[in-house]
Specification:
The complex is a heterodimer. By secondary structure, chain A is of the alpha+beta class. Chain A contains 7 helices and 5 strands. In chain B, helix 2 packs parallel to helix 6 and helix 14 packs antiparallel against helix 15. The chains are: A alpha+beta, B alpha/beta.
Chain lengths: 160, 439
Amino acid sequence: MKFSPELDKKLNDLLTRYPEGRQRGALIPMLMFAQDEVGAITKELINEVARRCGVTPLQVDEVVGYYSMMHKKPLGKHHVQVCTNISCLLVGGEELYEHACKKLGIGHKEVTQDGQFSLEEVECMGACSWAPAIQIGYDFHHNVTPERFDQLIDALKKVQ
Amino acid sequence: MLYNEPSPLEVRVLTRRFGLPNSAHIDTYLGTDGYKAFAKALDMTQEQIIEEVKASGLRGRGGAGFPTGMKWGFVPRQSPKPKYIVVNADESEPGTCKDRLLIENDPHQLIEGVLIAALAVGATRGWIYIRGEYRYLIDIMDKALAEAYARGYLGQNILGRGFHFDLYTHTGAGAYECGEESALLESLEGKRGVPRIRPPFPAVSGAFQSPTILNNVETFCAVPPILLDGAAKFAAYGTPKNGGTRLFCLSGHVNKPGVYELPMGFNLLRMINEVGGGMRGGKKLKAVIPGGSSCPVLKAEECDLPMDFDSLMKAKSMLGSGGVVVMDETTDMVKAALRIMKFYAHESCGWCIPCREGTTWLKKLLSRLDEGRGTRADIDLVGDLSKNMLGRTFCPLGDAAAMPTISFVEKFRDEFEAKVARYAAAAGSAEPRLISLAQ
């Protein structure tokens, strides 16, 4: 499987971080960084990571099934994650999530037809004191009102 | 970057560099006593370092509150195996958002804390396990690590003193369970985050089956100030047996939610009123979850108490991870209990049955009660089922789900009953009925 030279270097570097003979330690970081470039955890990617870490594809696959940030199907170009856990719930997180569904026209773990946006109702993301919070990709947005949400989405639409 | 205004009541020990220009850069750190505690530690014996940490009264900031110095003392330093340091930056306890700030604003303080721990047990390698959602912190941390390597604070023959230590970041991938120490170690080894049976504890058999010090970010960050200013000074910020300050994450119905560094033992009502600016909209306080969603909820009348590990334990709750979730009189407690249980049901790793099945059934029962389709028997069943989970799981996730639920039902039973009664009145019968389960 072919990666960009930067990612290839990164993956090789990851293997050096774990004790001799314990290179499986690099498995989860490898999957996470590669997923960002490939767009999803494909069968080819599983085989490639298995080869690099010296484990079987099945051992990689059982790890992929466990972690909520690993996706076998591609997400939207902008993955919108709305937290509705307790701190966000108290200050409008649930209403914000419902608003997000309407604004994007999709539900939990769905992707818009043009592939631009995907939506996920997520668990606590660590922004409780600045709730309600969302993440778009890896970017945090704090104290998000429905109006602010629309602005963020509209700005991303314009860039396309 | 700071996301809320600081409070004048704060005692800034761990957060002393927050707000300085370029606070994450090594030059800022070195210009403000950075790496001086480590230099001091280089001239101390391992016993002296551990004794100093013990004397500071520092207790684990991840949630359990175990005395840090004692934990370090459990590492068999004579073992022929390599020793490792692991930083738990898998901050995922609902209500908690402090480790994020410590890494974002002062990553070198964390590196220095880890270096001192490494000296104390003769460790050669360490990993900072950062939750996957905090990708930007991995970038910040990697940059700080590169700076530390470039200046000779990491790598071979550190500061020419013959001490070798390598430190790396390691990303998680979305799993609350990996904040539990043994599940984190499994995840670090490239596996599913399923907890290990203990003993052996990580001090004896941790990362890659070697003796390991595993602490929360905030715990490591407290170590440089302890060595620099002395254990006595750090201990004196807090109360007896609860040394130092703590980063409290105020959230919910207060006027000024935010992360604030306050002395251990700070009064909870004062925290809400004076630090948090009082209740939003002048509403009445109903309840507080004092230390993240795993902690039993306190009723308003129970909140006049000092925020330290022992006082909270006496109040039959926990100081936990410092996530203080404030709820006003309008809060629907059945809905709050349900949302918390949905979280645990989602995050249960499924390894042991009381947790996997217990959280799932509790979610179903609480859903039914919240939707007004529950019965009085359901309320009792929620309480009984939760109590039957306690102490019967491999890791504390089962307890973390059960404890708050028991407290919600016991302390706010009237709200659960009101929802049942409302439906019964509408249906014209108070008799329990058999009804199909939601989902």
